[in-house]
Amino acid sequence: MSDSIIVKSKIKELASGQNIGGDFAEALDKKVKELVKEAAKRAEGNNRRTIMAKDL
């Protein structure tokens, strides 16, 4: 998971009072990457090179 874009310590901060499973960060990283790729496709489909919040 060397190319992870998710910061595990930030997940722990956000989920204060909860334990975080060992596989959670990896699954979250995968989901975020999918969202970014989909947003990029949407922006491209709208003839834009800038990904915006509305692409989510």
Topology, element by element:
Layout: H1 8-14, H2 24-45
What does this structure look like?
The protein has a domain at 26-56. The mean pLDDT is 94. The protein is elongated, with a radius of gyration of 14 Å. It is mostly helical. The protein has helices at 8-14, 24-45. It starts with 7 loop residues before the first helix and ends in an 11-residue tail after the last helix.
Order of helices and strands: HH
User: Whole-number radius of gyration?
Assistant: 14 Å
Helix content: 40-55%
Strand segment count:
0
Largest sheet: none
Structural class: mainly alpha
Instruction: Give the count of helical stretches.
Output: 2
How many angstroms separate the termini? 24 Å
Q: What general form does the structure show?
A: elongated
- Ranges with pLDDT <50 over ≥5 residues? none
Q: Approximately what portion of the residues adopt beta-strand conformation?
A: under 5%
Mean pLDDT, nearest integer?
94
